[in-house]
Amino acid sequence: MKDLLNDLKQDLPAGLVVFLVALPLCLGIALASGAPLFSGVIAGIVGGIVVALASGSPVSVSGPAAGLTVIVLNSIQQLGSYELFLLAVVMAGIMQVVLGYLKAGIIGHYFPSSVIKGMLAAIGLILVFKQIPHALGYDKDSEGDFVFVQVDGENTFSEILNALNFLQPGAIIIATLSLLILIAWDKPFFKRYTFFKFVPGALVVVALGVGLNEFFKVAFPVLALENDHLVKLPVARSVNEFIGQFTLPDFSGFSNYNVYIIAFTIAIVASLESLLSVEAADKLDPYKRNTPTNRELKAQGLGNIISGLIGGLPLTAVIVRSSANINSGAKTKKSAIIHGLFLLISVVGFASLLNKIPLACLAAVLLMVGYKLAKLSLFKSMYALGWEQFVPFVVTIVAILFSDLLKGIGIGMAVSIFFILRNNYKRAYYFMKEKRSEGETITIQLVEDVTFINKGVITLTLDKLPFNSNVIIDGSKSHNIDLDVLEIIHNFRETAVLRGIKLELKGIPAFKGVAGH
Questions:
Q1: What pTM was estimated for this model as a whole?
Q2: How does it sit in the membrane (predicted)?
Q3: Are strands 470-474 and 502-506 parallel, antiparallel or unpaired?
């Protein structure tokens, strides 16, 4: 019981902050996806409660994902029915559960650290760039639209310039004061006081935003924010109206071939994004805990099955909410569950009150999350590791900024693999010269694992060996020598005689493909 209370001291405030971050994102992603607004909230609730309970991640938070908006939008249009799309979501969840049992989660361990850190920095920068217009009072583009080319026709950078033509002084005042409060809240001086430890700055910012805007309405109507500048949570006037917001899948779609294609697409993309997000969350986790990836796939699959059955969007583990959770001091998965419960309570009884929250104060919260993900110190530490780490890191950032998450990760992975291949190409062996009684001897000591990637450099090295020299090719420390490399070595043994080279092979297996051996 004591441990539970100790955890709640950290998890309750963190869950509240994540709720405040998640609420506009759930609505914005639903809007950008061309789905009912309530579908985003359903996915947020299921991700917060169901997935968190089933997942093995202590800090990851799941919900509707910006990376799926284009897929969802196109899928709904292609199927011509949201109910058919929900069937695809349910089937995608079943596929994810199967992938979990097939242990496909192992893929999550093969993303290079430089690419994961590049993804975190890119998302941080995207949050900053995307929230600047909202902080200035220009809310034409919905929250949750994280791709470069936006739904409103602008791109990430042109939107900022465009926002300068539609400045809202009231929003700027609220956003500026909110940022100042959030910055002060993190200072060690304030952390010495109990109030600042246990009351999240985001809650104070939201209360300030609502209070200021209500004051503007009375005293300075020209500064007051209305309509598009506020949260827009669907309000149910009765129990029947609330229940009517849930939608059931159209199970007659089992005979529709396109439903299976869309389900498979969602399953693969959602699984990859989830694995990327939990890997990134594990890196941010101050306790350095590791998420069981196969269990995560099963949890995400269960979440998508339930979300699809009751009318929700497909969901994934989401790094924006996860990083907000970690930065707010979350210790266990209770914070994610608390955020899901807050979402549920908000739509049941407090929708009208929450619709008074200005997007400008929530923009300030997300600006702080973005800043912490893309701190200058991260760039300095990656640069200090050398070009082999820094280049994939930067390429990942740029690619994500100008495309989307998965395309950017793919490009970053390609660059990272290039450096891995380049290093393997160079590091196939150790080259040593030493004086012996019979003259100078060259020893080529092969490394532990020699693959076909090393064919080129080994061939060039053997071709450049001087005539009439003494050469030892030593594979005694190698656990694996690829057949392609063995062929090159044994072919060289035959040509070495013609060049007057005295060759000794140590620990080199026979190669049957060469005549006479």
A1: 0.83
A2: Multi-pass membrane protein
A3: parallel
